[in-house]
Design goal:
- With 209 residues, this protein is α+β, with helices and mostly antiparallel strands.
- The chain has one domain (4-205): Aminopeptidase (3-Layer(aba) Sandwich).
- It is 41% helix and 25% strand.
- The chain has seven helices and seven strands; from the N terminus they run βαααββααβαβαββ.
- The chain has helices at 14-25, 29-34, 42-59, 87-101, 110-119, 147-161, 175-183, and strands at 4-8, 63-69, 72-80, 131-138, 167-172, 187-194, 197-205.
- It has a seven-stranded mixed β-sheet with strand order 1-2-3-4-5-7-6, sandwiched between helices.
- Helix 1 (14-25) packs across helix 3 and helix 3 packs antiparallel against helix 4 (87-101).
Amino acid sequence: MEGLRIELADQKTIEKGTEVLLEAFLNEGFTSFIFDFKKEKTKRYLYRAFLLRGKLNLEAGEQIFLAKKEGEIAGILFLKRNRKVPLGRLLKIIFPDLFKVFPLIGKIRFGNLIPGLKSLKTREKLEEPYLTLEAVGVGREFQGMGIGKMLLQKTHSIAEEDPEIKGIYLFTADKKNREIYQHFGYQVIEEKKEKGITAYHMFRKNQKS
């Protein structure tokens, strides 16, 4: 696409990228199930939580891709190899932002918390090593331009360049998203129904593994 490029996020660009991710996730199945957006400042505190997650991923050496169109961030994708952050570095990152995120607890729909957490876990045993597509989002004004497709294709090419990688795992609580991912070769390995939420655990096999 003309004027569009994909680059890695860093500590300077992750804040703007998180804004795009937050807007994309406000109506996402799991997020809207767990958090009450009718309460004041829920969106603000969730942004801080997403930003902290992004900073931790970067510190662990995980890849966060930004799709930029004419210099503006249009989309973002979190790709994980499930690396660990050493405890000392972990605490150094968490403590400065911990109290900024803590009020998010008061925005949780506690009646939905247990079924929501249960939906996150799959009984299927995934063959390692694999990548995890943790999150992907496209800004509202950029939707319908194929940006999500380009981010997914970037992810798939990374997996297929490494013959040891068995595939890519993801979780979604949206039927519409499930259908989109199926179009790109992901298969439902478990459909998990809990009270009030249906989760789809999906896997795309690496053809070169």
